[in-house]
Amino acid sequence: MIHKEYKTELTGVRYLSAATYEASFTRPKNFSFLPGQRIRFSAKTIQRDYTIVSGPQDDRITLCIHHIKDGKFSGIFASTTPGTQFMFTGPHGYFRYFPSDDQAVFIATGTGIAPFVSFVHDHVRGFILLHGITGPSEQYYKEQLISAASLYIPCFSSRLPDRQNTSAGFHGRVTRYLEKNLPSGKYHFYLCGSAGMIADSLPIIDERFPESKVFIESYA
Question: Which of the 8 DSSP states describes residue 34?
Fold first, then answer.
């Protein structure tokens, strides 16, 4: 499938934590997408996909980007002056929300939270959210997600200093919560984030929730 190429302009960068930032771009005329989809930037032989955080009706495109040292695009966006133009193609991907009578469970690690924020912008409500992070500073878009979710559980994978301990989260990986804490039932699972998290979650879902459906978006 051939995707149309669009021109966009960086409008700003806002850091969400020490290593993650939100980049905002102008939205090209006639560019449309579904919440959960990605856009693709290219430079020579290198391509990078980023899931859109903003909603389908917003007049800006926002992305949640982990700043990787020497990263081809993550470093460029972070250091580029607003007004710089870029080209992208899209939308790409088929990760989207499917309304159902079954409880939706969103499971993310790190910036894998991006499609779920876009879902919220598109008025998805009442879901359970497990967000795998190292500490409280990585609870990106926390207030928006709490207001929309029926249950919001940050899962802290690192041992936190006493001053950061909080009863509002789960101390352990998302897979541990999935294995030990999520009640039995029939769910619609949406997994987005590291390939390792997804690989570890699928056997647990197969064993504990065999009648459930699973939708996957893997970040390599």
Answer: -
pLDDT in tens, 68-94: 877 778 888 988 999 999 999 999 999
Six-digit token pair at 55? 């909603």
Mean pLDDT of 112-125: 99
How far is 68 from 50, CA to CA, in rounded Å? 14
pTM of the predicted model, to two decimals?
A: 0.94
Domain covering 103-219, topology:
Rossmann fold (3.40.50)
Q: Determine the Cα–Cα distance for residues 179 and 181; give it in Å rounded to an integer.
A: 6
CATH code reported for the domain at 5-92: 2.40.30.10
pLDDT tens-digit readout, 27-66: 999 999 999 999 999 877 888 999 999 999 999 999 999 9
What does the DSSP assignment read for 88-134? EEEEE--------SSEEEEEEEGGGGHHHHHHHHTT--S-EEEEEES
Which residues make up the CATH 3.40.50.80 domain(s) of the chain? 103-219
CATH 2.40.30.10 location in the chain = 5-92
